[in-house]
Design a protein that fits this description.
alpha/beta, DUF1570 domain-containing protein, single chain, DUF1570, globular, 2 domains, 11% strand, Glutaredoxin, six-stranded mixed sheet
């Protein structure tokens, strides 16, 4: 699901910025706190008010591991939830001024992955999206930008909605009626989210969905890609692997989204 804050900025800031973020309030300075394994959630409001989200976040790592057949390390993931946009901006503006227009922010540091968000109607979607980034980077030494965003778009909705109820479904089915397929080579060339538009997020999600729920041969390409990355190798780009191993993959893709 695309919202304006994703189109204007980046998702994962460089690690030297992460060193600034531990300056946020900790421990007893927060009204509510929850811990589950390597996950810590701090909030300026009672977490019981968003207990559903807390439970979903506690389960998200296991869902990602099971779905992607990966295993995350135990690096801490800290989530900071602010009661209002004003409070969020007050904390973020002095540390990462360019991020104040975002509704949520993920920063990968050397000691922990940190997520910052404020309470609003779609906070749960935003936090699941950013938490997916944090978990993925605990699973793999490197995740290409477009694939990272594709998975975040996939896992940002509730588990029951991921296979057939993501908002991208309706738009991708409509577009595919007119033919065409994602330009994988173009997606792979993008290095900054400032280069992404709504269509890029949609296409990245659709390729992820195709690999997870489409033909077994497409899933094998993903599994092989992960295995190569985990072993420290350089995987074949998807733009080359798809035609080499799937043949007319555009036809398979179109059938998948009929």
């Amino acid at each position: 699901m695309i919202r304006p804050h994703r189109l204007a900025c980046y998702t994962c800031l460089v690690c030297w910025l992460a060193g600034l973020f531990p300056m946020v309030l900790r421990g007893d300075d927060w009204k509510s706190r929850h811990e589950a394994g390597n996950l810590s959630i701090f909030a300026e409001f009672a977490l019981k008010d968003v207990q559903g989200l807390v439970d979903e976040l506690a389960a998200l790592q296991g869902e990602i591991e099971a779905t992607l057949r990966l295993k995350a390390n135990n690096q801490p993931i800290e989530i900071y939830l602010f009661a209002s946009r004003g409070s969020y901006v007050n904390h973020v503006s002095v540390r990462v001024p360019n991020a104040v227009n975002r509704q949520a922010l993920y920063v990968q540091g050397k000691d922990a992955g940190r997520i910052y968000a404020y309470r609003h109607r779609n906070m749960d979607i935003d936090v699941r999206h950013e938490a997916t980034h944090a978990i993925l980077h605990n699973c793999l030494p490197f995740v290409p930008l477009w694939l990272d965003e594709g998975f975040a778009e996939y896992f940002e909705v509730r588990q029951a909605e991921r296979k057939s109820q993501n908002p991208h479904h309706s738009s991708i089915k409509w577009i595919r009626r007119f033919g065409g397929r994602p330009d994988l080579a173009a997606l792979e060339k993008k290095r900054n989210l400032s280069e992404f538009d709504g269509g890029d997020y949609r296409d990245a999600w659709s390729v992820v969905h195709f690999m997870l729920h489409g033909p077994p041969a497409a899933r094998k390409i993903l599994d092989d890609y992960f295995e190569t990355i985990s072993d420290g190798g350089v995987p074949q780009p998807f733009s080359q692997a798809f035609p080499a191993q799937l043949g007319n993959w555009g036809s398979l893709y179109a059938q998948h989204f009929r």
